[in-house]
Each structure stands twice: as structure tokens, then as C-alpha cells.
Amino acid sequence: MATLKVKIEESVLIENERYNNKRVVEIESIDEVFKRVVTCPASATTTLAVFNSAVSGADGAIDIEDSKYIRITNLASTSIELAIVGSASLYHLKLASGHSHIIGSADDIMKGIASTSPSFGSTADLASIKVNPGSSAANVEIFIASAG
User: Fold this and answer.
1) Which of 41, 94, 123, 147 has a Cα at 20 to 30 A from 13?
2) Inter-CA distances, 111 with 36, 71, 92, 117, Å
3) How far is residue 80's CA from residue 22's CA, in Å, rounded to a whole number?
4) pTM of whole model > 0.85?
5) pLDDT tens, position by position, 93-109
6) How far is CA 64 from CA 61, 68, 148, in A?
7) Residues sharing a CB contact under 8 Å with residue 134, sequence separation 6 or more, in sequence order
8) Which residues, other chains included, contact 23 with Cβ-Cβ below 8 Å and sequence gap of 6+?
């Protein structure tokens, strides 16, 4: 078992005044990692990861309950569209070049609704992560740490 240490640090100097922020989180009992760089073809949707309640439940599945940290990073020079897909809903966002999207876990993590008023409460499991890079192919990195 290992401890995953995640550090996010920001620093900017504006008119001789420095604004710094650093956050560190440690996630214990990590014993599995999934990491790959995927070349996503232009104008096509590519599945980066599939989640299931058991690794044997779907081809290449990552266990929903075991996943503790998920990071998707756009390595391309242009933005991409990223879809976080649940069993009955999804949310998607544009991910700029060099930017990352971090998700804490796949278990009870999301709620997609068609409304401008947040509906807090029950959440659903993550089912898959998909990317569409638009008119140019894009490299995307995915990293998942799990505690099995």
C-alpha cells in the first residue's frame, strides 16, 4: 500500500505583490494505478476509461468503489471537449490546452441536470470518461489511483 500525494500550487506576481496558494492532499492505501496517454482522433468520441462495480463487469473496467483520484489532462495545443458520463446523465466541459480536470472518486460523484438551479442531494456513479477533440487529433492523459 502507498500514499498518493497530490499538490496544487498557484503563484502570480501582480504589481510587485505575490499571491500564492498551495493545497496538498494525501490519499492513503493506494495499491493500483491506471495511466495512459491516448491519441484521440479528430471529430471522433474516444472513451478514456470505463467504470463498473467490479473489474470483471466490463472490458477494461476500473472498480467504482476502489477509485480514489482521477485526473484528465489535455496535452494538445487546442482545447478539447470532455464528457463525464454517469448511468443516466452526464456533464461535459471544454478543457483548455495544458489544463486538467480532477475528480475525487467514481463512487457517487456526479449529478447532471438540465436546469440553472442546482439540485443538491443524491449523486450517481461515474460510468465512463469520453473526449472529443474537435477538428484536430489530441493527446490526452488519464491517471487514476485506486485502493483495492
Assistant:
1) 94
2) 26, 19, 12, 13
3) 27
4) yes
5) 999 999 999 999 999 98
6) 9, 9, 10
7) 42, 43, 78, 79, 80, 81
8) 7, 8, 9
